[in-house]
Design goal:
Order of helices and strands: EHEHHEHEHHHHEHHEHHHEHEH
Number of domains: 2
Number of strands: 8
Strand order of the largest sheet: 2-1-3-4
Structural class: alpha/beta
CATH topology of the largest domain: Rossmann fold
Largest sheet: 4 strands, parallel
CATH class of the largest domain: Alpha Beta
Shape: globular
Radius of gyration: 21 Å
Distance between the termini: 50 Å
Length: 372
């Protein structure tokens, strides 16, 4: 059986390895481009959120390349993610492309994969499947950790673009890694490269916390490489969401991930007493967390019409006012342009630098509203 899945940040590396190792012929969707978005938007409801449209574009391109079945994540609550698989299935059926959807939920993650493997004419024991899941997750975790490090430290690179080049090469190397030894070797080589690529760390860099809807955060081809752009503008960037953390929080029993979720819930509760679906709760909680750590600014990234993030967007100005931390809200859909976003990011970073300089000489600047 030829199977595919949507691009969601760097998770494709681990998903590809896992599915290939259990006997599937894996069709990785082409990298997301403007053509992917336009194809998905053409066949999607107009007011559905951007991730839905991009994923549909992934599926259509993968089916054109020969995919017969699609692995997709499910969900519950107010976020529309839980409806994606069914609506995608209906749309593709209407287009004459009947495709099997294999939806993975928290309660059926391992069992659903096991059943799909059997349907594919293969058999796999649980004691063999679990190490494959661990290694596949380790690949994604390493890439996520590396991306987080580069977001924090890109502002120190000696030559602009070096960190991005190292990262692109590392993704290829991790994708090709077939064993733990291969992965460890890649880690050693990358660590040595980064040591040569970065300047000494300044005493106190400009720090920006980026929060928002998970897909818009982890899929750089959709957010116009927002974190990378901020780093090139001289900011140290911290992001609250990665694909591997989502897996540990929602699909696998991970005590530390659950403890972190409870910690962020405590940060959020003064502003929002209950969960609202999606990652609106985490958006508020991490915004408060970054503000309490003394970050210089916050950026919220969300897709147009995302209800949980719209609720969070309405609360964040209060967080901004309470902690005196500037806030920039970035709302994206298929009509968004890279040039306009870059202009807003440049203005935001300039304002943060001026604000810091003013505080050093005893001046005072008022934090902008969420519409800055």
């Amino acid at each position: 059986m030829r199977v595919t899945f949507p691009h969601m940040g760097l998770t494709w590396v681990g998903v590809k390895h896992l599915l290939a190792e259990v006997g599937f012929d894996v069709v990785v969707p082409p990298p997301i481009t403007r053509a992917t978005l336009e194809l998905g938007a053409k066949h999607s409801p107009e007011f559905i959120c951007l991730p839905f449209k991009v994923m549909l574009g992934n599926y259509l391109q993968a089916v054109e390349a020969g995919a017969e079945a699609i692995f997709m994540l499910g969900g519950i609550g107010p976020c529309r993610l839980g409806y994606y698989a069914e609506v995608h299935r209906e749309i593709m059926g209407d287009l004459g492309l009947p495709t099997r959807m294999i939806v993975l939920e928290r309660d059926n993650f391992v069992s659903e994969i096991s059943q799909a493997v059997k349907a594919n004419g293969h058999g796999i024991k649980w004691h063999k499947l679990i190490p494959l899941v661990r290694f596949s997750l380790a690949k994604v975790t390493y890439l996520d950790n590396l991306e987080a490090k580069l977001l924090r430290e890109r502002y120190r690179e000696k030559l602009t673009g070096t960190c991005s080049n190292i990262f692109a090469q590392t993704v290829q190397a991790v994708d090709a890694a077939a064993s733990w030894a291969d992965l460890q070797q890649t880690k050693r080589l990358v660590s040595a490269e980064l040591e040569q690529a970065l300047l000494p760390e300044p005493s106190r860099p400009l720090r920006i916390g980026v929060v928002g809807e998970i897909y818009m955060l982890i899929e750089s081809s959709v957010n116009f490489r927002l974190g990378e752009r901020l780093g090139q503008l001289g900011a140290s960037v911290t992001r609250n969401m990665y694909g591997s953390t989502w897996v540990r929080e929602h699909l696998l029993p991970d005590l530390r991930a659950r403890q972190e979720m409870r910690r962020i819930a405590r940060r959020c509760r003064p502003y929002l007493a209950q969960r609202i679906g999606g990652h609106g709760f985490e958006t508020i909680g991490y915004a408060v967390d970054y503000a309490e750590q003394g970050y210089d600014g916050l950026v919220q990234v969300l897709p147009l019409t995302c209800m949980p993030e719209i609720i969070a967007e309405s609360i964040l100005p209060t967080v901004s006012e309470d902690y005196g931390i500037p806030l920039l809200t970035v709302t994206l859909d298929e009509h968004a342009g890279e040039a306009g976003l870059l202009t807003r990011l440049e203005a935001f970073v300039d304002m943060l630098n001026e604000r810091r300089a003013s505080s050093r000489i005893g001046g005072e600047l008022i934090a902008p509203s969420a519409g800055y």
